[in-house]
Amino acid sequence: MTPFRLLFLAAGRAFAAIPRNAGFPLQSLAVRTSTCLPSIRYTLLIGFALFTFMAAAQPTLEFVDKNYEPQIKTVQLYPSFDGVRDYLQSPAAPMENQNLVLEFDDLQDQRNNYYVKLIHCNYDWTQSTLRDLDFLENFNENPITDYAFSINTHTRYIHYRFPVPPVKIPGNYLLIAYRESPSEIILSKRMMIYHNQVNITKDDRMAGSGNLSTKKQQLNFDIDYSNLEILNPMETVHVVIRQNQRWDHAKFNVAPSFFREQSSRMEYRFFNSDQQFDGGNEFRFVDFRSLNFPGQNTGKINKAIKPYELSVALDEHRSQNVYSQYVDLNGNFLIENLDVGEADLTGNYVYTQFLLKSPQKNNGEVYLVGRFNEYVRSEENKMHFNPVGYYESLQFLKQGFYNYQYEVVSNQVSPTEIEGSYFQTENVYEIFVYNRPFRPNADLLIGYYLINVNPR
Asked: What CATH code is carried by the domain that includes residue 145?
């Protein structure tokens, strides 16, 4: 075991034993660090002091999907239609059926008083000038009253659930959850409410240069706004496209290739490569919905300690491989427990070790990304190079089925340097059409459309 992994494991276990509200006695820290090297115990004490200081500081709100405290885990925001796997869907809902639901775990054993607030945003996720009563019927402070304690889990947590209140106008909204005041924010999530007033039609007649590229995917579509009076659409209409629910790679304010004013039509033909998306590759996956009989792409599982340790099967570079087709979740993840059931409350958190074979260090930083971490390229999700011949990262994940990929941040190579990029890859694209009328003076989401490229 490398010194880095030993330190990470010890720090993680110590943190898991000490919730933010000190629900566990400080004695547990000493017990869990008693077998560590003196230097590691010292590092843990320093780390715990830093965590206490950071928890007391007030975080700065960012208009992104983010957890602001490390004990907040497995955040999901989705439209609930009483389906088994509704949570795989994008947090976009129609005006007539706004049944969005927020769920998350708080890794401690004492309940907190949490509240939820909505902020109306422009198409580019900057805050609009609308006041709360412009888009809400009631006060913009809603307590989270639906919660339950975990059942017989190695790490205790509280599972919270909150039905998002309906809004009066379509558009982008940032949902924030906080403890006692909005300054004590614990998480933020982006959501979209749409009112389809324009017709969006996919057009495959002119595929353009996208068909000639082995790495890119091209989207052609038309927007028909003949049923809606729009003054100066070239100025007031904004189109945003994203792939596989990723905001970090989204294309904002996409301009039409052709504008047909007489027929109230805007045509989008993306001939240039910079207007196209990298096809990427099918997502890797690991299945530990069962801890008694771990599924595909899992390695060893250590049950001698709790929480358990699980090793993911050794991954290899795929950029030079021939494209291989298989079904994935387009980067998403499932929270399921095949051993007991009711995974929301019985799912165990597991120290999950990801290993990427690499004889030498890559030209750039390597990150482990997926919907489970909102594709954030942070220190927590960075892969650390081991001179033995691999990259490694340890994640504290809830029992389930996870899609993931390795992404490179470098000025020298492509982000898909490890995974490869192929035009045959199956991807789901979302098209958002916004319009800013004179009243209200804010961007309204007047069109929402899904395009599945290379559907299986």
From this structure: 2.60.40
This prediction has a pTM of 0.87
| 93's tokens | 């809902």
pLDDT at 48: 40
Interatomic CA distance for residues 436 and 120, integer angstroms: 13
Helix (H) or strand (E) holding 200: strand 199-202
Decide the pairing of beta strands 237-243 and 284-287: unpaired
Tell me how far apart the terminal alpha carbons of the chain are, to the nearest angstrom: 41
Q: Is residue 300 part of a domain?
A: no
Of 33, 57, 81, the residue that ends a domain is 57
Give a yes or no: residue 190 inside a domain.
yes
Looking at the fold, whether 147 and 264 belong to one and the same domain comes out as: no
For residues 443 and 236, the answer to whether their CB atoms sit within 8 Å is no
107 lies in the same domain as 178: yes
pLDDT of residue 112: 94
Strand-pair category, 309-312 with 349-357: parallel
- From CA 373, how far away is CA 371, in angstroms rounded? 5
Which pLDDT belongs to residue 274? 78
Q: What number of helices (H) and strands (E) belong to the chain? A: 6, 29
Domain for residue 25, yes or no? yes
Token pair of 53, please?
Answer: 């200081």
Q: For residue 46, give its domain range.
A: 1-57
Query: In whole angstroms, what is the distance from residue 444 CA to residue 170 CA?
Result: 5
Is 305 part of any domain? no
Are 141 and 89 within one domain? yes
Closest CA to 333 of 291, 261, 283: 283
Residue with tokens 């909505």: 118
**∠ at Cα 68 (66, 70), nearest 5°?**
110
The reply to whether 245 and 262 lie within a common domain is yes
Under 8 Å between Cβ of 240 and 449: no
Q: Are residues 32 and 79 in the same domain?
A: no
Measuring CA to CA, how many Å separate 4 from each of 138, 396, 406?
Answer: 51, 16, 20
Residues of the chain with pLDDT under 70: 1-57, 84, 205-212
